[in-house]
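Model it.
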Amino acid sequence: MGKKILLGLWLTIIFAAISVLFWENEYKYSLPTPIPKNHHDIAMGTLIDLTEKISEKSKPIFIHFFNPDCPCSRFNVPHVSELIKKYGDRINFNIVVLNKEKNFTVAEIQQKFNADIPVFFDEAIAEKCGVFSTPQAVLLDASQKLYYRGNYNKTRYCTDASTNFAQMAIDSLIHRNNNPSFDALALRSYGCSLPKCNK
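Modeled.
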């Protein structure tokens, strides 16, 4: 009888440990990021004036909102790096680092993405674009109007080619198609919430 109780207790502990690990490493990142109470939504088509920050404005502007401490941000670094390589001659890529807890240098961030592109440490850019979580993609057309704000992919590692939302938005803008129609999965924020970028 004592062995059965001990075995049951041991199995319960193992199950609880697995559940905690699954929650911490997977499930909680699949839940939408709560919208902050003071959040002001920015509608698609809104002019986002970044004149003071971004000097190169002859091309569409892509802003990657990134937190090195956010697991979701870390998982999609290879995907963002590929976007920069593929579209860097036609799109003005920028990274905005959102992390209040640690200091990072421009060189450290550029090294992570293997790209010599502008890096900013400015929460005001996120507010202007209506971003309240990381990672998030923002694409502005050549007139600096908000064309896309949303997720990169439905999977954390950006491995589902059919849901490469940010890339679809870039392709749509480059080929001058109508604004792509995305569902809630593309446009609802997932990941680490601001201002501390924790989940």
